[in-house]
Design brief:
With about 725 residues, this protein is of the alpha/beta class. It is built from 24 helices and 27 strands.
Length: about 725
């Protein structure tokens, strides 16, 4: 993008928003050492005489009191947007967030022994600065910090992680620099804005700009929502000086602005390609390597092979929202923000409190609210519009899961004639249950706009087909999701991480029963614990000889049902330990936290029994991860719910009914007592399945079925099925 700076500078109402560190002034080893010089401040004051000048910084407001004293006439936003200096006084825009105190303590405990690591607490955020942390210990520090942040964010959905220039920040979602742009527009309606910044937090300014505004990214070139690039603070000052002279009519004949080049933003305009669409993209890593989940490991190779693009929500709510931009970490992904309110009404409302319980067979838990249904319809229409912007009408579009059941209908209305497929990762209930939703008919109608609908199991497929009189050409297929087993095999065979080594030592010669789940009422965690207690009751010989470890990954703690579930689980654990525990034996260890991939693989490896006993689950990849992590010579036993999608493939697991406490207790005792030869025999067959239906094979199978218009999937249901 080329800017005519002379014309731009003469805009009648001009707003200039500029960051400090790395933009107007060079970085320093610590924030305290970065000071703004008189020359730069004089330049801002000169611009203020003809423009609206706003300094937008991530610094605490206490760290820029020197600036407000030297140039009180300027406007300042501190801590990204939590504080605003205006008309000679500080205004608290966002109240302090005490929830961050817990995370601050955890981060200080991790960083305390690392030289150069600085934890900084602000009004609505907490930061880790690692600019001067030595390289040998940096990755270890960041890995531990990432895990602590991941775990904390699971239970605090109003907060988000923000990578920066050699720093990590966790902040309230309303605490961002885009609020400065919105404030300038409210106070000067016809303003044209130039926003200048250097790091990820400045992207919030760039994303809030209009088409005729200008965003300037400073320093290292990277994917950005800004339109042009400047090399560094010296060039920023030169540009601001040029604008100041132009606005006063003082440009000499040879006066030229510094050279700016178009920013390095990948082109994501419409073209023929494979487009993968999911409600949300994987969490951004800020340019650092992070472990990825099964869906990422399956989708990424498919995108590379087919030259595709993955489109999804960024995880943020911003005004105006719904503007597609490149993912800053991966050019094969494109993202957009929700407009304010969608997280509550669309995602947290109809998706998670309506469709999620309904599809898992808990229709009595489902909540159907008219406003949330309308938000769902609006969101599906918006996703379709964004797909239309980045794909040609003939592109192959692969949509994922229950959040987007209406997206194909909306795409067809926009003239899309390429193949569109939907894969449901969740179960699909029987017709009578599904029809408890007031809008079941419209949802089915929307789903039949897809060319192919993929299900995890034949049971979920047949449930859908039994409720549809005419499939209208839609083909139904069974495509069980898999994992990349090699990653678990390799991690399980590594030397024990500290947590696993300590657990192994504490077990001594006791058997280990393991449960690993996201904390969700569909996972059957209380029922599993009750079955373990019942097993101890009717098999007293196992008291003191078997220990249960339940790992519950935090989830949706802001939803009342999930907070109640956590309390129920903790009460059951306390009762079991109080009733059966001894001075040297705690029957149940309950771990409410997340673990990294390597630790999980090693926990699977040392477990004698894995209880994977959801009340209902689309697939449940924990079952496959456990099998992949086993020692072939001495494998553990997979005790698997017959209501998990995985049970359809994994018939050699020990299948159980999680609704039958006594039966599950008896099955657990059988698993603990299973002879080695039977364990090996079952494991060989289970391992073959896990290696056959891998994540990458699943992705290629679905894409193949979708693009082969003339051939239905092998497991397709006839269109005559009612």
């Amino acid at each position: 993008m080329r800017i005519d700076w002379s014309t731009f500078a003469k805009t009648p109402d001009l707003g200039i928003l500029v960051d400090l560190d790395g933009t107007l002034i060079p970085f320093a080893p610590t924030p305290d050492e970065a000071t703004i010089d008189d020359e730069a401040l004089a330049l801002l004051r000169e611009l203020h005489e003809t423009s609206r000048v706003v300094v937008v910084t991530g610094r605490p407001h206490a760290m820029i009191t020197d600036l407000t004293a030297r140039a009180p006439e300027l406007t300042y936003f501190a801590e990204h947007g939590a504080w605003r200096w205006d008309a000679g006084a500080w205004v608290e825009v966002l109240a302090r967030t005490p929830e961050l105190d817990e995370l601050e303590g955890a981060m200080r405990a991790i960083a305390g022994g690392t030289p150069g690591a600085i934890v900084e607490r602000k009004q609505c955020s907490v930061d880790l600065h690692y600019r001067v942390v030595p390289s040998p210990v940096r990755e270890t520090l960041l890995h531990a910090i990432d895990l602590a942040i991941d775990e904390w964010l699971e239970t605090h959905p109003d907060f988000e992680r923000m990578p920066g220039a050699e720093m990590i920040e966790v902040r309230h979602r309303l605490d961002h620099k885009g609020t400065a742009v919105a404030w300038v527009r409210r106070t000067t309606p016809d303003v044209r804005v130039i926003a200048i910044g250097d790091d990820y937090s400045d992207e919030d300014m760039f994303k809030s700009l209009r088409a005729d505004d200008v965003g300037v990214i400073v320093g290292a070139e990277r994917p950005t929502a800004a339109s042009v690039w400047l090399a560094g603070p010296s060039e920023v000052r030169a540009l601001l000086g040029y604008i100041a002279r132009a606005r006063r009519g003082r440009l000499d004949e040879g006066d030229r602005p510094p050279e700016t080049t178009s920013s390095r933003a990948p082109t994501i305009g419409p073209r023929d390609r494979l487009l993968v669409v999911s409600n949300r993209l994987p969490v951004s890593s800020g340019g650092r390597t992070r472990e990825v989940g099964g869906l990422v490991s399956a989708i990424a190779p498919a995108l590379a092979r087919h030259g595709g693009l993955w489109l999804g929500w960024s995880g943020q709510e911003r005004e105006p929202g719904l503007i597609v931009r490149p993912d800053p970490d991966d050019p094969s992904r494109a993202q957009f923000d929700y407009p304010p309110g969608w997280r509550r009404t669309y995602y947290g409302g109809f998706c998670n409190r309506g469709l999620w319980p309904l599809l898992h067979g808990f229709q009595w838990r489902a909540r159907f609210v008219d406003d949330e249904w309308q938000a769902y319809r609006d969101a599906n229409a918006a996703y379709a519009r964004l797909v239309h912007e980045v794909a040609s009408p003939s592109s192959t579009v692969w949509v994922h899961d229950y959040q987007l059941l209406l997206a194909a209908r909306e795409l067809r209305r926009r003239g899309h004639d390429g193949p569109i497929g939907l894969f449901l990762h969740v179960p699909f209930p029987p017709r009578d249950d599904f029809e408890t939703c007031p809008w079941a008919g419209e949802l089915i109608d929307g789903m039949l706009a897809y060319d192919v609908i993929g299900f995890q199991t034949a049971r979920w497929r047949d449930n859908f087909a039994s409720g549809v009189a005419d499939l209208r050409g839609t083909r139904l297929g069974v495509f069980p999701v898999g994992i990349d087993p090699s990653t678990f095999e390799d991690a399980a065979g590594d030397g024990d991480v500290d947590d696993v080594a300590r657990l192994r030592a504490s077990l001594r010669d006791r058997k280990l029963v393991l449960g690993v789940d996201r904390l969700d009422y569909s996972k059957g965690i209380p029922e599993r614990l009750e079955a373990f207690a019942r097993m101890l009751e009717i098999n007293p010989g196992w008291r003191g000889r078997a220990s249960f470890v339940q790992v519950s990954v935090p989830s949706r703690s802001d939803v009342p049902e999930y907070a109640e579930l956590r309390q129920r689980v903790e009460n059951v654990v306390g009762r079991i330990n109080g009733e059966y525990g001894e001075a040297d034996w705690v029957p149940v260890r309950y771990l409410y936290r997340s673990y990294e991939h390597r630790t999980l693989a090693q926990l699977y490896r040392i477990a004698d029994v894995a209880m994977v006993t959801p009340l209902r689950d689309g697939m449940n990849l924990v079952a496959k991860e456990f099998v992949a992590s086993q020692d072939d010579a001495n494998p553990g036993v997979l005790l698997l719910s017959k209501f998990a999608g995985a049970s359809e493939e994994m018939r050699d697991a020990l299948l159980t009914n999680p609704y039958h406490r006594d039966g599950m207790a008896a099955d657990l005792a059988r698993a603990l007592e299973m002879p080695l030869e039977e364990r090996r025999s079952r494991h060989r067959r289970l391992r073959a399945i896990v290696h056959r239906t891998t994540a990458s094979a699943w992705a290629e199978q679905f894409i193949g079925a979708l693009v082969e218009d003339s051939a239905a999937p092998a497991t397709a249901v006839s269109a005559a099925v009612k």
